[in-house]
Amino acid sequence: MRISLLIGLMATVLFACNSKSTISKELRASIQSNESFAFVKKKALEVVKTGFNAGDGYGEVWIRDYNTFIELSAEVYPKEELKENLRVFFRLQGNDGNIIDGFIPKEKAEDVEGGYTYIYNDLEPVYCGHKNTVETDHESSLVQAVYKYVRKTGDKAFLGEKIGDKTVAERLQWSMEFLMNHRWSKAYGLVYGATTADWGDVQHCHPWGVYVTDETKYCIDIYDNAMMVIALNNIMELLPETQQKWLPIRNNMVDHIMKTLWDNDKQKFIPHVYLKESPYPVDFNENEIFYHGGTAVAIEAGLLSKAQIKVSLDKMIANVKASGAGSIGLTMYPPYPSWAFENKGMVPYGYQNGGDWTWFGARMIQQLVRYGFYQEAYDQLVPMTDRVLKNKGFYEWYTVDNKPTGSGTFRGSAGVLYKAIEMLEGAVEK
Protein backbone atom coordinates (compact mmCIF):
# COMPACT_ATOMS: atom_id res chain seq x y z
CA MET A 1 0.00 0.00 0.00
CA ARG A 2 1.33 3.43 -0.91
CA ILE A 3 2.43 5.49 2.10
CA SER A 4 0.26 8.49 1.17
CA LEU A 5 -2.81 6.26 0.88
CA LEU A 6 -2.05 4.60 4.24
CA ILE A 7 -1.67 8.00 5.92
CA GLY A 8 -4.96 9.12 4.35
CA LEU A 9 -6.77 6.03 5.64
CA MET A 10 -5.33 6.51 9.13
CA ALA A 11 -6.39 10.16 9.16
CA THR A 12 -9.89 9.16 8.06
CA VAL A 13 -10.21 6.61 10.88
CA LEU A 14 -8.85 9.01 13.50
CA PHE A 15 -11.11 11.81 12.29
CA ALA A 16 -14.16 9.56 12.31
CA CYS A 17 -13.41 8.53 15.88
CA ASN A 18 -12.84 12.07 17.16
CA SER A 19 -15.43 14.03 15.14
CA LYS A 20 -18.37 15.34 17.13
CA SER A 21 -21.14 17.38 15.54
CA THR A 22 -22.06 19.14 18.77
CA ILE A 23 -22.03 22.70 20.02
CA SER A 24 -20.36 23.35 23.36
CA LYS A 25 -21.75 25.80 25.89
CA GLU A 26 -18.80 28.10 25.19
CA LEU A 27 -19.38 28.04 21.44
CA ARG A 28 -23.11 28.57 21.91
CA ALA A 29 -22.42 31.66 24.03
CA SER A 30 -19.91 33.00 21.51
CA ILE A 31 -22.37 32.63 18.62
CA GLN A 32 -25.22 34.23 20.52
CA SER A 33 -23.19 37.19 21.78
CA ASN A 34 -21.07 37.98 18.72
CA GLU A 35 -21.73 41.65 17.92
CA SER A 36 -20.41 41.41 14.36
CA PHE A 37 -23.07 38.81 13.47
CA ALA A 38 -25.93 41.14 14.39
CA PHE A 39 -24.30 44.03 12.53
CA VAL A 40 -23.71 41.95 9.39
CA LYS A 41 -27.29 40.71 9.25
CA LYS A 42 -28.72 44.20 9.72
CA LYS A 43 -26.33 45.70 7.18
CA ALA A 44 -27.00 42.91 4.67
CA LEU A 45 -30.72 43.63 4.72
CA GLU A 46 -30.04 47.34 4.21
CA VAL A 47 -27.73 46.67 1.25
CA VAL A 48 -30.01 44.23 -0.51
CA LYS A 49 -32.95 46.65 -0.28
CA THR A 50 -31.18 49.02 -2.67
CA GLY A 51 -31.33 46.91 -5.82
CA PHE A 52 -30.34 43.79 -7.70
CA ASN A 53 -27.13 44.74 -9.49
CA ALA A 54 -24.01 43.03 -8.18
CA GLY A 55 -22.77 46.14 -6.35
CA ASP A 56 -22.02 49.83 -6.74
CA GLY A 57 -19.28 49.05 -9.26
CA TYR A 58 -21.68 47.28 -11.64
CA GLY A 59 -24.66 48.39 -13.68
CA GLU A 60 -25.84 44.90 -14.57
CA VAL A 61 -27.80 42.23 -12.76
CA TRP A 62 -25.56 39.15 -13.02
CA ILE A 63 -26.99 35.66 -12.66
CA ARG A 64 -23.94 34.25 -10.87
CA ASP A 65 -24.36 37.01 -8.27
CA TYR A 66 -28.18 37.03 -8.11
CA ASN A 67 -28.04 33.30 -7.38
CA THR A 68 -26.17 34.05 -4.16
CA PHE A 69 -28.44 36.77 -2.76
CA ILE A 70 -31.92 35.95 -4.11
CA GLU A 71 -32.82 34.30 -0.78
CA LEU A 72 -31.79 37.42 1.10
CA SER A 73 -33.72 39.59 -1.39
CA ALA A 74 -36.79 37.51 -0.58
CA GLU A 75 -36.64 38.93 2.95
CA VAL A 76 -37.25 42.47 1.71
CA TYR A 77 -38.88 42.25 -1.75
CA PRO A 78 -42.23 40.84 -2.88
CA LYS A 79 -41.86 37.62 -4.84
CA GLU A 80 -43.12 39.29 -8.04
CA GLU A 81 -40.01 41.48 -8.23
CA LEU A 82 -37.71 38.51 -7.64
CA LYS A 83 -39.56 36.53 -10.29
CA GLU A 84 -39.41 39.33 -12.84
CA ASN A 85 -35.61 39.32 -12.70
CA LEU A 86 -35.64 35.58 -13.38
CA ARG A 87 -38.04 36.13 -16.29
CA VAL A 88 -35.60 38.56 -17.90
CA PHE A 89 -32.90 35.88 -18.01
CA PHE A 90 -35.36 33.48 -19.64
CA ARG A 91 -36.59 36.08 -22.14
CA LEU A 92 -33.01 36.69 -23.21
CA GLN A 93 -32.19 32.97 -23.40
CA GLY A 94 -30.37 32.08 -26.62
CA ASN A 95 -31.97 30.01 -29.37
CA ASP A 96 -29.59 27.18 -28.42
CA GLY A 97 -30.65 27.30 -24.75
CA ASN A 98 -27.69 29.30 -23.41
CA ILE A 99 -28.22 31.75 -20.55
CA ILE A 100 -26.82 35.26 -20.52
CA ASP A 101 -24.38 36.40 -17.84
CA GLY A 102 -26.19 39.62 -16.95
CA PHE A 103 -28.71 42.20 -18.12
CA ILE A 104 -28.90 45.99 -18.17
CA PRO A 105 -31.54 48.52 -19.35
CA LYS A 106 -31.24 49.10 -23.08
CA GLU A 107 -30.77 52.86 -22.71
CA LYS A 108 -27.81 52.35 -20.37
CA ALA A 109 -26.20 49.85 -22.72
CA GLU A 110 -26.47 52.34 -25.57
CA ASP A 111 -24.47 54.83 -23.50
CA VAL A 112 -21.55 52.40 -23.08
CA GLU A 113 -18.78 52.67 -25.66
CA GLY A 114 -16.80 49.54 -26.43
CA GLY A 115 -16.85 46.58 -24.05
CA TYR A 116 -19.70 44.13 -24.36
CA THR A 117 -21.56 43.11 -27.48
CA TYR A 118 -25.12 43.24 -26.19
CA ILE A 119 -27.74 40.55 -26.75
CA TYR A 120 -31.34 41.44 -27.65
CA ASN A 121 -34.52 39.39 -27.94
CA ASP A 122 -38.03 40.37 -29.02
CA LEU A 123 -39.39 38.69 -25.88
CA GLU A 124 -37.65 41.30 -23.70
CA PRO A 125 -38.67 44.94 -24.36
CA VAL A 126 -36.71 46.69 -21.59
CA TYR A 127 -33.36 44.96 -21.10
CA CYS A 128 -30.49 43.57 -23.13
CA GLY A 129 -27.88 41.09 -21.99
CA HIS A 130 -24.26 40.07 -22.27
CA LYS A 131 -22.35 36.83 -21.79
CA ASN A 132 -18.77 36.26 -20.60
CA THR A 133 -18.31 33.25 -22.85
CA VAL A 134 -15.15 31.99 -21.13
CA GLU A 135 -17.25 30.77 -18.18
CA THR A 136 -19.66 27.82 -18.00
CA ASP A 137 -21.69 28.61 -14.88
CA HIS A 138 -24.48 30.87 -16.13
CA GLU A 139 -26.92 28.08 -16.94
CA SER A 140 -26.27 26.31 -13.65
CA SER A 141 -26.54 29.57 -11.71
CA LEU A 142 -30.00 30.30 -13.14
CA VAL A 143 -31.26 26.82 -12.31
CA GLN A 144 -30.00 27.24 -8.75
CA ALA A 145 -31.56 30.71 -8.46
CA VAL A 146 -34.96 29.42 -9.58
CA TYR A 147 -34.66 26.53 -7.13
CA LYS A 148 -33.90 28.93 -4.26
CA TYR A 149 -36.76 31.20 -5.31
CA VAL A 150 -39.28 28.35 -5.34
CA ARG A 151 -38.00 26.93 -2.04
CA LYS A 152 -38.11 30.34 -0.38
CA THR A 153 -41.52 31.48 -1.67
CA GLY A 154 -43.33 28.21 -2.34
CA ASP A 155 -44.22 29.53 -5.80
CA LYS A 156 -44.15 26.23 -7.70
CA ALA A 157 -46.62 27.64 -10.22
CA PHE A 158 -43.74 29.68 -11.67
CA LEU A 159 -42.32 26.49 -13.16
CA GLY A 160 -45.41 26.16 -15.38
CA GLU A 161 -45.42 29.79 -16.49
CA LYS A 162 -44.91 30.19 -20.22
CA ILE A 163 -42.23 32.51 -21.57
CA GLY A 164 -42.40 32.60 -25.32
CA ASP A 165 -43.15 29.08 -26.53
CA LYS A 166 -41.64 27.28 -23.52
CA THR A 167 -42.47 26.97 -19.84
CA VAL A 168 -39.94 27.88 -17.18
CA ALA A 169 -39.52 24.16 -16.44
CA GLU A 170 -38.75 23.49 -20.11
CA ARG A 171 -36.31 26.41 -20.24
CA LEU A 172 -34.44 25.16 -17.18
CA GLN A 173 -33.87 21.83 -18.88
CA TRP A 174 -33.03 23.56 -22.15
CA SER A 175 -30.23 25.41 -20.40
CA MET A 176 -28.75 22.11 -19.20
CA GLU A 177 -29.10 20.71 -22.72
CA PHE A 178 -27.08 23.67 -23.98
CA LEU A 179 -24.19 22.56 -21.76
CA MET A 180 -24.57 18.98 -22.97
CA ASN A 181 -24.69 20.04 -26.63
CA HIS A 182 -22.16 22.88 -26.72
CA ARG A 183 -19.89 22.66 -23.65
CA TRP A 184 -19.54 18.92 -23.24
CA SER A 185 -16.37 16.85 -23.49
CA LYS A 186 -17.28 13.34 -24.64
CA ALA A 187 -13.79 12.18 -23.74
CA TYR A 188 -14.20 13.15 -20.09
CA GLY A 189 -17.98 13.11 -19.68
CA LEU A 190 -17.84 16.61 -18.16
CA VAL A 191 -18.44 20.24 -19.12
CA TYR A 192 -15.55 22.43 -20.19
CA GLY A 193 -14.71 26.12 -20.34
CA ALA A 194 -11.76 28.42 -20.92
CA THR A 195 -8.65 28.56 -18.74
CA THR A 196 -9.64 30.80 -15.85
CA ALA A 197 -8.51 31.12 -12.23
CA ASP A 198 -10.76 28.77 -10.24
CA TRP A 199 -14.32 30.18 -10.45
CA GLY A 200 -13.20 33.34 -12.26
CA ASP A 201 -14.44 34.71 -15.57
CA VAL A 202 -11.13 36.09 -16.88
CA GLN A 203 -9.19 33.73 -19.14
CA HIS A 204 -5.41 33.49 -19.42
CA CYS A 205 -5.20 35.25 -22.80
CA HIS A 206 -6.39 38.67 -24.04
CA PRO A 207 -6.03 41.96 -22.09
CA TRP A 208 -9.65 41.75 -20.91
CA GLY A 209 -10.21 38.02 -21.13
CA VAL A 210 -13.99 37.53 -20.88
CA TYR A 211 -14.66 36.36 -24.45
CA VAL A 212 -13.58 33.10 -26.07
CA THR A 213 -10.95 33.79 -28.76
CA ASP A 214 -8.83 31.76 -31.18
CA GLU A 215 -6.18 31.57 -28.43
CA THR A 216 -8.55 30.10 -25.82
CA LYS A 217 -7.38 26.85 -24.23
CA TYR A 218 -10.32 24.73 -23.18
CA CYS A 219 -10.23 22.66 -20.03
CA ILE A 220 -12.20 20.78 -17.40
CA ASP A 221 -12.35 22.31 -13.91
CA ILE A 222 -14.09 21.52 -10.63
CA TYR A 223 -16.13 24.72 -10.24
CA ASP A 224 -18.13 24.50 -13.48
CA ASN A 225 -18.81 20.80 -13.07
CA ALA A 226 -19.78 21.03 -9.40
CA MET A 227 -22.15 23.86 -10.29
CA MET A 228 -23.82 21.67 -12.91
CA VAL A 229 -24.15 18.77 -10.47
CA ILE A 230 -25.92 21.10 -8.01
CA ALA A 231 -28.16 22.38 -10.83
CA LEU A 232 -29.13 18.84 -11.86
CA ASN A 233 -29.91 18.00 -8.23
CA ASN A 234 -32.11 21.11 -8.10
CA ILE A 235 -33.96 20.28 -11.34
CA MET A 236 -34.71 16.75 -10.18
CA GLU A 237 -36.09 18.04 -6.88
CA LEU A 238 -38.22 20.70 -8.59
CA LEU A 239 -39.31 18.36 -11.38
CA PRO A 240 -39.27 14.76 -10.06
CA GLU A 241 -40.63 13.47 -13.36
CA THR A 242 -37.28 14.36 -15.00
CA GLN A 243 -35.19 12.06 -12.80
CA GLN A 244 -35.10 9.28 -15.38
CA LYS A 245 -33.42 11.68 -17.80
CA TRP A 246 -31.05 13.57 -15.51
CA LEU A 247 -30.10 11.13 -12.74
CA PRO A 248 -27.81 8.94 -14.90
CA ILE A 249 -26.10 12.08 -16.25
CA ARG A 250 -25.66 13.48 -12.77
CA ASN A 251 -24.30 10.19 -11.40
CA ASN A 252 -21.87 9.81 -14.30
CA MET A 253 -20.66 13.38 -13.76
CA VAL A 254 -19.95 12.70 -10.09
CA ASP A 255 -18.01 9.58 -11.02
CA HIS A 256 -16.04 11.35 -13.78
CA ILE A 257 -15.28 14.39 -11.61
CA MET A 258 -13.63 12.26 -8.96
CA LYS A 259 -11.78 10.13 -11.51
CA THR A 260 -10.59 13.06 -13.62
CA LEU A 261 -10.12 15.98 -11.25
CA TRP A 262 -9.52 14.58 -7.76
CA ASP A 263 -5.84 13.99 -6.93
CA ASN A 264 -6.04 11.30 -4.27
CA ASP A 265 -2.36 11.54 -3.34
CA LYS A 266 -2.52 15.30 -2.78
CA GLN A 267 -6.11 15.18 -1.48
CA LYS A 268 -7.14 18.12 -3.65
CA PHE A 269 -8.72 18.95 -6.99
CA ILE A 270 -6.47 19.36 -10.03
CA PRO A 271 -6.89 22.97 -11.28
CA HIS A 272 -7.33 22.16 -14.97
CA VAL A 273 -7.40 19.10 -17.18
CA TYR A 274 -6.88 20.42 -20.71
CA LEU A 275 -8.77 19.10 -23.73
CA LYS A 276 -5.61 19.64 -25.76
CA GLU A 277 -2.42 21.35 -24.67
CA SER A 278 -1.90 23.58 -21.64
CA PRO A 279 -1.21 27.28 -22.26
CA TYR A 280 1.59 27.13 -19.71
CA PRO A 281 5.22 25.96 -20.05
CA VAL A 282 6.05 22.36 -19.15
CA ASP A 283 8.17 23.41 -16.17
CA PHE A 284 5.19 25.14 -14.52
CA ASN A 285 3.47 22.78 -12.07
CA GLU A 286 -0.09 24.07 -12.06
CA ASN A 287 -1.19 21.26 -9.74
CA GLU A 288 0.63 22.92 -6.85
CA ILE A 289 -2.27 25.39 -6.76
CA PHE A 290 -5.17 24.66 -4.40
CA TYR A 291 -8.52 26.12 -5.50
CA HIS A 292 -10.51 27.33 -2.47
CA GLY A 293 -13.70 28.41 -4.26
CA GLY A 294 -14.12 25.37 -6.49
CA THR A 295 -13.49 23.09 -3.52
CA ALA A 296 -16.22 24.82 -1.49
CA VAL A 297 -18.71 24.39 -4.35
CA ALA A 298 -17.67 20.75 -4.76
CA ILE A 299 -18.51 20.19 -1.10
CA GLU A 300 -21.88 21.85 -1.70
CA ALA A 301 -22.41 19.38 -4.55
CA GLY A 302 -21.79 16.50 -2.13
CA LEU A 303 -18.61 15.32 -3.84
CA LEU A 304 -16.36 14.98 -0.78
CA SER A 305 -16.60 12.86 2.35
CA LYS A 306 -16.56 14.43 5.78
CA ALA A 307 -12.94 13.37 6.24
CA GLN A 308 -12.00 14.93 2.89
CA ILE A 309 -13.79 18.13 3.89
CA LYS A 310 -11.67 18.33 7.05
CA VAL A 311 -8.47 17.82 5.04
CA SER A 312 -9.58 20.52 2.59
CA LEU A 313 -10.31 22.94 5.41
CA ASP A 314 -6.92 22.28 6.99
CA LYS A 315 -5.27 23.05 3.65
CA MET A 316 -7.25 26.29 3.34
CA ILE A 317 -6.22 27.38 6.84
CA ALA A 318 -2.59 26.55 6.09
CA ASN A 319 -2.80 28.55 2.84
CA VAL A 320 -4.19 31.57 4.70
CA LYS A 321 -1.31 31.38 7.15
CA ALA A 322 1.31 30.97 4.42
CA SER A 323 -0.04 33.84 2.31
CA GLY A 324 -0.92 36.24 5.13
CA ALA A 325 -4.49 36.59 3.85
CA GLY A 326 -7.39 37.56 6.07
CA SER A 327 -9.73 34.60 5.55
CA ILE A 328 -10.31 31.29 3.79
CA GLY A 329 -12.03 33.37 1.10
CA LEU A 330 -8.54 33.40 -0.45
CA THR A 331 -9.31 32.19 -3.97
CA MET A 332 -6.24 29.99 -4.29
CA TYR A 333 -2.75 29.32 -3.05
CA PRO A 334 -0.22 29.77 -4.38
CA PRO A 335 -1.48 32.29 -6.95
CA TYR A 336 -0.54 32.09 -10.63
CA PRO A 337 2.67 33.92 -11.62
CA SER A 338 2.34 37.40 -13.13
CA TRP A 339 2.93 36.05 -16.66
CA ALA A 340 0.06 33.54 -16.49
CA PHE A 341 -2.70 36.07 -17.37
CA GLU A 342 -2.65 38.92 -19.86
CA ASN A 343 -5.21 40.90 -17.87
CA LYS A 344 -3.12 43.32 -15.79
CA GLY A 345 -5.46 42.99 -12.82
CA MET A 346 -4.64 39.29 -12.52
CA VAL A 347 -1.27 39.73 -10.85
CA PRO A 348 -0.42 37.43 -7.93
CA TYR A 349 -2.97 38.08 -5.14
CA GLY A 350 -4.84 40.44 -7.44
CA TYR A 351 -8.55 40.16 -8.21
CA GLN A 352 -9.44 36.51 -8.99
CA ASN A 353 -5.80 35.37 -8.82
CA GLY A 354 -5.46 35.03 -5.07
CA GLY A 355 -7.74 37.84 -3.91
CA ASP A 356 -9.73 37.15 -0.75
CA TRP A 357 -13.43 36.88 -1.60
CA THR A 358 -16.04 36.52 1.12
CA TRP A 359 -18.40 35.70 -1.75
CA PHE A 360 -16.88 32.22 -1.85
CA GLY A 361 -15.33 31.96 1.60
CA ALA A 362 -18.75 32.19 3.26
CA ARG A 363 -20.00 29.37 1.04
CA MET A 364 -17.35 27.20 2.65
CA ILE A 365 -18.65 28.29 6.05
CA GLN A 366 -22.16 27.20 5.02
CA GLN A 367 -20.85 23.75 4.16
CA LEU A 368 -18.93 23.48 7.42
CA VAL A 369 -22.18 24.11 9.26
CA ARG A 370 -24.04 21.68 7.03
CA TYR A 371 -21.55 18.91 7.82
CA GLY A 372 -21.42 19.61 11.55
CA PHE A 373 -18.09 21.45 11.80
CA TYR A 374 -19.61 24.09 14.06
CA GLN A 375 -16.50 25.26 15.92
CA GLU A 376 -14.50 25.40 12.69
CA ALA A 377 -17.32 27.30 10.98
CA TYR A 378 -17.39 29.88 13.76
CA ASP A 379 -13.61 30.28 13.82
CA GLN A 380 -13.41 30.88 10.06
CA LEU A 381 -16.55 33.04 9.88
CA VAL A 382 -15.46 35.60 12.48
CA PRO A 383 -12.61 37.11 10.39
CA MET A 384 -15.13 37.76 7.60
CA THR A 385 -17.78 39.35 9.80
CA ASP A 386 -15.23 41.35 11.79
CA ARG A 387 -13.97 43.11 8.67
CA VAL A 388 -17.52 43.95 7.59
CA LEU A 389 -17.99 45.58 10.98
CA LYS A 390 -14.63 47.35 10.75
CA ASN A 391 -15.20 48.62 7.19
CA LYS A 392 -18.94 49.27 7.62
CA GLY A 393 -19.89 47.39 4.50
CA PHE A 394 -19.57 44.45 2.12
CA TYR A 395 -16.61 44.84 -0.20
CA GLU A 396 -16.15 42.79 -3.32
CA TRP A 397 -12.79 41.39 -2.29
CA TYR A 398 -9.80 41.99 -0.02
CA THR A 399 -6.11 42.18 -0.77
CA VAL A 400 -3.71 39.67 0.74
CA ASP A 401 -3.08 42.14 3.59
CA ASN A 402 -6.84 42.34 4.25
CA LYS A 403 -7.53 45.76 2.72
CA PRO A 404 -11.00 46.15 1.14
CA THR A 405 -11.21 46.80 -2.59
CA GLY A 406 -13.60 46.52 -5.52
CA SER A 407 -17.31 47.27 -5.29
CA GLY A 408 -18.23 48.64 -1.86
CA THR A 409 -21.75 47.21 -1.65
CA PHE A 410 -21.22 43.72 -3.02
CA ARG A 411 -24.56 42.00 -2.61
CA GLY A 412 -23.19 38.51 -3.24
CA SER A 413 -21.01 38.82 -0.14
CA ALA A 414 -23.97 40.10 1.86
CA GLY A 415 -26.12 37.18 0.72
CA VAL A 416 -23.69 34.37 1.49
CA LEU A 417 -22.58 35.87 4.82
CA TYR A 418 -26.17 36.37 5.96
CA LYS A 419 -26.99 32.77 5.11
CA ALA A 420 -23.85 31.44 6.84
CA ILE A 421 -24.73 33.28 10.05
CA GLU A 422 -28.34 32.12 9.89
CA MET A 423 -27.22 28.51 9.42
CA LEU A 424 -24.87 28.70 12.39
CA GLU A 425 -27.48 30.37 14.57
CA GLY A 426 -30.00 27.78 13.43
CA ALA A 427 -27.67 25.01 14.54
CA VAL A 428 -27.58 26.60 18.01
CA GLU A 429 -31.37 26.73 18.16
CA LYS A 430 -31.62 23.03 17.31
Task: Report on this structure.
The protein has a single domain, classed as Glycosyltransferase (Alpha/alpha barrel). It has 15 helices and 16 strands. It has helices at residues 3-18, 25-33, 35-48, 63-73, 79-91, 106-110, 138-153, 168-182, 222-238, 243-260, 292-300, 306-323, 358-370, 374-391, 411-429, and strands at residues 61-62, 102-105, 127-130, 162-163, 166-167, 184-185, 190-191, 193-194, 218-220, 262-263, 268-269, 273-274, 290-291, 332-333, 397-398, 404-405. Helix 8 packs antiparallel against helix 9 (222-238), helix 9 (222-238) runs parallel beside helix 11 and helix 13 packs antiparallel against helix 14. The chain is globular. Mean pLDDT is 94; it is low at 1-19. It comes from Saccharicrinis fermentans DSM 9555 = JCM 21142.
- What is the CATH class designation? Mainly Alpha
How much is the average pLDDT? 94
Main β sheet profile: 3 strands, antiparallel
Helix content: 40-55%
Total of DSSP H or I helical runs spanning 4+ residues: 15
Low-confidence stretches: 1-19
Strand content range? 5-15%
Q: Give the overall form.
A: globular
Number of domains: 1
Under CATH, the topology can be stated as: Glycosyltransferase
Distance between the termini: 43 Å
Name the strands of the widest sheet in spatial order. Answer: 1-2-3
Number of strands: 16
**What radius of gyration results from the CA coordinates?**
21 Å
